[in-house]
Design brief:
By secondary structure, the protein is mainly alpha-helical. Helix content is about 55%, strand content about 0%.
């Protein structure tokens, strides 16, 4: 499982120094010139250093080592929701979903308003193909953090997997409104869409194109239309008459995408 289907959702201090994972980092602002020396930073405690080391292990994908380090800290803080969530993420990355689920549930029990843990629990249900359960949990996370593009995007993926396409488009649209780059991050963090067939990927890309068309984003619409056709989407000819694409259909990029030749049929390997 990719570490991406989970987050955006929990943020390591060390990771924030190394990667931008499923979230948008705040823009840096130039420091004002001053003659005063900056105040010295307080020294980290042994406890903070231990957690930071575990965070670095996680960032380096040493998931088992990171889990072991977090567990040591958890012995003294058994109800620390952040530690419980981090251990859950470690197990998710090891594809040990049942263990991950237990830790996310413990994190939520320790802090019922911990939106990231709820989101991560939703991803477990998503990967276990319990899509309606995942949707309900994502919605709980969204209530707590309605400004999270990742949560809305994840909910859209679950709606799509459950074949509730209008709901998927609405969720994806909201995610894009909150963070136009939300789906560009998804190669390195957050929730990745599970696809079981080429046909499913083709339909997914078509609905992503439709989402961007509804937002008048011709460039991204064209990008996903091309991917849909490349994956074998068979109703490309009907797109020109689809009202959902009316605002972008005359854009040169969209017209070019619609001219994408369908893939050639490859022979299936024999066993």
């Amino acid at each position: 499982m990719n570490a991406f289907l989970l987050n955006g959702v929990f943020r390591f201090r060390a990771v924030l120094l190394l990667l931008a994972i499923a979230v948008s980092l705040p823009l840096c602002v130039a420091a004002q010139e001053t003659s005063q020396e900056p105040a010295p930073q307080p020294a980290r405690t042994p406890r903070q250093i231990a957690e930071l080391k575990a965070d670095i292990m996680m960032a380096r994908k040493l998931y088992s080592d990171a889990i072991e380090a977090y567990e040591e800290l958890l012995k003294k803080e058994p109800k620390n929701a952040e530690l419980l969530n981090k251990i859950g993420v470690g197990y998710s990355n090891l594809t040990k979903l049942d263990k991950a689920k237990k830790y996310y549930e413990r994190a939520i029990k320790a802090d019922p308003k911990y939106a990231s843990a709820l989101n991560n629990l939703g991803t477990v249900h998503f990967y276990q193909k319990k899509f309606r359960r995942a949707i309900k949990i994502y919605q709980r996370a969204i209530v707590l953090r309605p400004d999270s593009a990742t949560f809305h995007g994840n909910a859209g993926h679950a709606w799509f997997a459950d074949k509730k396409y209008p709901e998927a488009i609405a969720a994806w649209s909201r995610a894009i409104e909150l963070d136009p780059q939300v789906f560009e991050h998804r190669g390195s963090g957050g929730t990745i869409l599970q696809t079981s067939s080429v046909e499913q990927r083709a339909v997914f890309y078509f609905y992503m194109a439709k989402t961007y068309a509804s937002l008048n984003n011709a460039e991204r619409c064209a990008h996903f239309l091309k991917r849909a056709i490349d994956e074998g989407y068979k109703n490309a000819a009907a797109i020109e008459k689809d009202p959902a694409f009316a605002s972008v259909i005359n854009d040169p990029l969209v017209k070019e995408a619609l001219q994408t030749p369908p893939p050639t049929t490859a022979s299936k390997p024999t066993s």
